[in-house]
Design goal:
This protein is an alpha/beta fold and about 240 residues long. The chain contains seven helices and eleven strands. The strands form two sheets. Strands 4-3-2-1-10-11 form a six-stranded mixed sheet. Bound molecules: manganese (II) ion (MN).
């Protein structure tokens, strides 16, 4: 079995090369794999499945194509937590809980966005609990599309000032929390994104933690083929 993992594309209207890069990845790689797994922050912001803007339409179009070629799984990150069941139905993808254990050739692989393991950032964890609570989400989704767009724009202006997407501004995972998470599910491989620090880390007992990179100067993908791991970056522009 072969699987392709990506995360942290942060697709938005300011960097059309990212959506174009995803479209090319879908055109090439998804014909060769059994599943495409997107581990969060597919888009920079998602204001609701009723969004009829250009970016939302583009994302739906590309994922629909992908879903015709392989199984496509989408997990929420801390940007696109409002992606919902209507989006899944519209595109043919399956939403995943964070974290999820995926069986690849009989091996359990722990897949997560990764932010839940960054426990040392207590302020962030409080914010995360709010954004992921169904009460907060229902309140936001009850407002009009225009109001949600305005809210997103104002949150975005703040995050641009704070440079939130830079790795220096994202706290890294807590090693003990990662070990505990792997212990809990009996997995020896964790794949996550969020921290924007791509790499393959060798842990104790032969266990590994693969971190996907964010799509900026290049795109990042992890391919798992018959148990072999290949983490690569590829150009977004041809
Ligand atoms: Mn994230």
């Amino acid at each position: 079995m072969s699987a392709l993992f990506i995360s942290d594309l942060h697709i938005d209207e300011t960097r059309p090369r990212v959506l174009a890069g995803l479209e090319r990845l879908v055109d090439t790689d998804t014909r060769e794999v059994d599943m495409l797994v997107i581990l969060g922050d597919l888009v920079e912001v998602w204001v609701g499945d009723d969004d009829d803007g250009t970016v939302a339409d583009g994302v739906r179009r590309v994922l629909s194509t992908a879903a015709e070629r392989c199984e496509v799984y989408v997990m929420h990150g801390n940007r696109d937590f409002l992606l919902g069941e209507r989006f899944a139905t519209d595109t043919g993808v399956t939403l995943l809980d964070d974290p999820t254990v995926i069986d690849i050739d009989g091996q359990p692989v722990l897949a997560a966005h990764g932010d839940a393991y960054c426990t040392r950032d207590t302020a962030y964890q409080r914010l995360r609990a709010t954004f992921r609570s169904s009460a907060w989400q229902s309140t936001v989704l009850a407002s009009s599309l225009g109001q949600r767009r305005a809210l997103a724009a104002s949150l975005r202006a703040q995050s641009a000032t704070a440079n939130e997407n830079k790795a220096d501004n994202i706290m890294d995972v807590t090693p003990e929390v990662v070990s505990g998470a792997l212990d809990q599910v009996g997995a020896s491989l964790l794949v996550h994104g969020h921290t924007h620090r791509p790499g393959i880390h060798h842990l104790d007992e032969g266990r590994r933690r693969v971190v996907l990179g964010d799509w900026d100067r290049c795109g990042w993908k992890l391919r798992i083929d018959q148990g072999d791991l290949a983490l690569t970056c590829f150009p977004l522009q041809t």
